[in-house]
Amino acid sequence: MLHDTTVTLDTIAGAICAYLRLSVIWALTFSLIEVAHPGLFLVNGHPFDAPLLTGGARLPDFLYLSLITISTVGYGDIVPVTQPARMLAALEGVIGQLYLAVLIARLIGLHGSSRSRAGG
Questions:
Q1: What is residue 50's DSSP assignment?
Q2: Percentage of residues in the chain with pLDDT exceeding 70?
Q3: Contacting residues for 45 by C-beta, under 8 A, at least 6 apart
Q4: Is the pTM of this model over 0.90?
């Protein structure tokens, strides 16, 4: 994606995959820190108390949290309650927005340069 000189469907698909991969990495990070230090996140005001996946926190819930955080929707049904967890969630939101801003700028730049080469 970074080495392409034109905007294609593959470029866009690669950008989307990278964005989703970032959210999976953050979900795993949130899950790991919840396993290491239970109580860092609350679900609807309560600690994670549902059945755990093989010694780990509920990964689907953390994937949901990650997607909501990286997109900065932030419904608030799963929330970080400690300062380190809050900082990680804030960092994910900032990284998600920077990724989108840089990605859109890059795609527009590629599209503009490919059009100018084709027209001139």
A1: S
A2: 80
A3: none
A4: no
